[in-house]
Amino acid sequence: MSDTGFPKPVGEVIGTIADIFRHQGKNEILEILESAHARIDEIDYDNWNGGTYIWALRLEVPVSLFAMLDPRLTSIEKEIEAKVRYIERLYPNDPIREVTITPIAPGSTALGSRMAPSELEVRRLWPDGRIRVFLSHVAEHKVAVTKLKDELAWHGVTAFVAHQDVKPGLTAQPRIRWNKWARRGRHALPFPPPRRFH
Questions:
Q1: Backbone angles phi, psi at 83, to 5 degrees
Q2: CA torsion, ordered 111, 115, 119, 125, to nearest 10 deg
Q3: 3-state secondary structure (DSSP) of residue 82
Q4: Does residue 124 sit in helix, strand or coil?
């Protein structure tokens, strides 16, 4: 159960419906779900059937994305709402009956959790026009990988190294989902691979 009392954590709900939209090729809605700060709010209660809680899924997105969606906002909200109805099959006393998408200005404090980094954060790590490589390593290779990243930069390659590029202790720092980075970067494996490769 989530902190709000909803039977599933909001990240699990968003992750599931994002996967559904990904498999259906609905990239615009996928971008909304991946960039949104999401939360689930209780909006009503009925004592029918032992007690039924009615919920709303709230999605806060960057202003730039909201501005592009605005003309089609109602239809997009209804399409997302239709997908979250699967939860009602599992939890008939906890239906999500409303989905709202609202803008959040830069610097504002978001109320929900986020599934993925914003486009601005992605551009900071992956500048346009450069080859992108995600460098995975074990702790004992930390210094060597840092040197490799610097050397690759001289050759027009942007490398992402978690111990350097993820700032520890920042509350606004998003969780890095492998799925998101895998689609944005390229993969390189050393040959021969190290004995402790993971």
A1: -75, -35
A2: 120
A3: helix
A4: helix
Tell me the one-letter amino acid at 131.
I
SS3 of 32, please? helix
Q: What are phi and psi of 15, to 5 degrees?
A: -60, -40
Which residues have CB under 8 Å from 61's CB, separation 6+?
A: 32, 35, 36, 37, 69, 101, 102, 103, 104
User: Amino acid letter at 129?
Assistant: G
pTM: 0.58
- 10-114 CATH fold: GMP Synthetase; Chain A, domain 3 (3.30.300)
Indicate the domain borders of the chain.
10-114, 119-187
Is the per-residue pLDDT at 142 higher than 70? yes
Q: Please spell the DSSP secondary structure of 146-171, one letter per residue.
A: HHHHHHHHTTTEEEE-HHHHSPTT-T
Please write the tens of the pLDDT for every residue from 94-139.
999 999 999 986 666 555 555 555 555 566 666 677 777 777 777 7
